[in-house]
Amino acid sequence: MPSPFSPSTSSPGTGIVKLALRPPDQPVFEILSFSYPLKLVVSAPHNFPYSSSNSVASITNPLHPSYVPLLFLLTYGGGLVSGDQIYLSILLEPTTRLTIASQGSTKIFKPSLPQDGSCSAQPPLLTRQDIRVEIAARAALWLGPDPCQPFALSRYAQTQIFEVDIKGGGSLGLVDWVSEGRSARGERWEFEGWRGRNEVWDVSSSTNDENGKEKRGTIKRLVLRDNLILSAPGLPSRVDDLGIFGTIILIGPLLSSLATFFTNEFKALPRIGARDWNAHNDSNPAVQSSERAPTELERREEWRKQRQEREKKDGVLWTVANVRGAVIVKFGAREVEGAKVWFREMMRQEGTVEREFGSGALTSVR
Questions:
Q1: Which of 43, 300, 307, 311 could cross-link to 70 by cystine, CB 3.0-4.6 Å?
Q2: pLDDT tens digits for 147-173?
Q3: What is the rounded radius of gyration, in angstroms, for the C-alpha atoms of the chain?
């Protein structure tokens, strides 16, 4: 008996998201489609008042959405089977804002053995995920999934390309991290290979020529290309006892405060051979007085001291670089939990992400 439904025209693992703003200020998913093994679920949005003068968007974006949708990027079974292919396209129209998260680590399952139990000489099938995002003027995206967890013998490749109208006020926040595998089962970087590439392009609608006159048309300029290649054999001996690597990319006016915060905190890290000018002088009675309430600066210094002690305990290492206006943070830790604690403390101390994208943006570190 023939099926009464028309045949599907979408390819397996394909997803399309298009977010627009409808009058007066309502975000609407004009397109939200996906096919197995990809699944997209819209959750409770983040509502926020813009009457507060502390809101960055109220200053940089007078036309703003009334809320920020929260979209969960999921896969059936909590991971990708060997050979799965994911292709996701996202378009954020002007003035829209979107938060994307996951509900757990993206597991990259190892390939199944032949039914006869023999070991195949062929390498495991490559599992891959490609995400392409267009962020228009005054739009913003926070992409903060849980860490990727590749199982032993798996092969995975990931490409994420972002086209952002930076001159028009577009903003991007990205967290991309990968763990050593199933540490509870003794796995330590035992996958066949893991490759990740992040590209950010500045796509502006106009520019100036040599004479300073404005030229119309779309100009596409590469801002950064970040590659991470992890491959066996001998990988565990080359990672210096780290169990997770991660990258944070911050671009645009909405996240400029967070980018500055990371830069300043990195500058405040103790250097080898440097004197600790922040150490308290025990002989100063004014410092030791319990009657005086600590100032904001003293509270910040105390928080910084405690955070740096935790970083040392958890083996957290991190650095910051500024590339053509984009701030990149590279970090690693001995265990996944140590990296999550560090990331959560940094995000909540500064506050921009939860304020402008909602608590769902930090689902991965709750």
A1: 43
A2: 999 999 999 999 999 999 999 999 999
A3: 23
